[in-house]
Amino acid sequence: MIGRRALPHDPPLFIDASKEIFFITICCKKRGANQLCYPEVASLLFQATQFYQRQQRWFVPVLLLMPDHVHFLASFSIDVKMTNVVASWKRFTSKHAKINWQRDFFDHRLRGDEGWREKSD
After folding, report:
1. Whole-number mean pLDDT of the chain?
2. What's the rounded Cα separation, in Å, for the pair 99 and 102?
3. Chain center to CA of 5
4. Terminus of the chain with fewer CB atoms < 10 Å: N or C?
């Protein structure tokens, strides 16, 4: 059942997710309060993103921190699920940077008429 408690993240079966780029938004639980734009927190978020990239779990060409949420573009390795990678990243950053993330995340698969450059701008 699709609803507030279960956002669907798996692309349709006819889509090869390893060849797609996703625009992802993750929000902090307490909206409107700056949790992310502090040098030590930002540094940890960027380092964790790079670590996951070196592990070839994802490729993130753009990551934008806002005070209470993060946006990024990502493509995922063929042998990993997007939900597992994002959940793991959230767990790590939550534990080490004391970020209180909202449950789940929002993702949008970029379609043919949406370039990643346009979305990153």
Report:
1. 86
2. 10
3. 18
4. N
